[in-house]
Amino acid sequence: xxxxxxxxxxxxxxxxxxxxxxxxxxxxxxxxxxxxxxxxxxxxxxxxxxxxxxxxxxxxxxxxxxxxxxxxxxxxxxxxxxxxxxxxxxxxxxxxxxxxxxxxxxxxxxxxxxxxxxxxxxxxxxxxxxxxxxxxxxxxxxxxxxxxxxxxxxxxxxxxxxxxxxxxxxxxxxxxxxxxxxxxx
Length: 185
Hints:
Layout: E1 30-33, E2 36-47, E3 53-60, E4 65-72, E5 76-84, H1 93-100, E6 106-109, E7 112-126, E8 137-145, E9 151-158, E10 162-171, E11 177-180
Antiparallel strand pairs: 1-2, 1-11, 2-3, 2-7, 3-4, 4-5, 5-10, 6-7, 7-8, 8-9, 9-10
């Protein structure tokens, strides 16, 4: 190793600096939110039809684990959610959905009333396990919001008998900062 080798770049860039945005993150990337560093551990993509896609990241701080959903509509919409057992919302909710082919228009969880805002059929894929986009899974999501529109709850049905639920809140884009790729974190 010569003297000038010290000044050589140690890591080659495998990203475009202008792509350091919340919608273009990859596994291993780091960002700041709520005065904490969050690491992206998984990346998911959703196809809602009509050329409408969204991305979701499984993120954690080492002590907390959430999902960061990113969707570009007229503006960038971000939500931080965590998974929960569907029966913790209502022990009869899966049976209600199977019987009525839809959940109730209002759900109450932890004392907060959520109102059905959208029913969204779509397709899902894990970007890491399906990099070529050949293994999309079909599902349907029902999205709820509280009266303020800041708290949200989602019910998902995968096939005939499998259900998932998540609860969380919307966050403004400006609260996500210092996005860095894995090589530079």
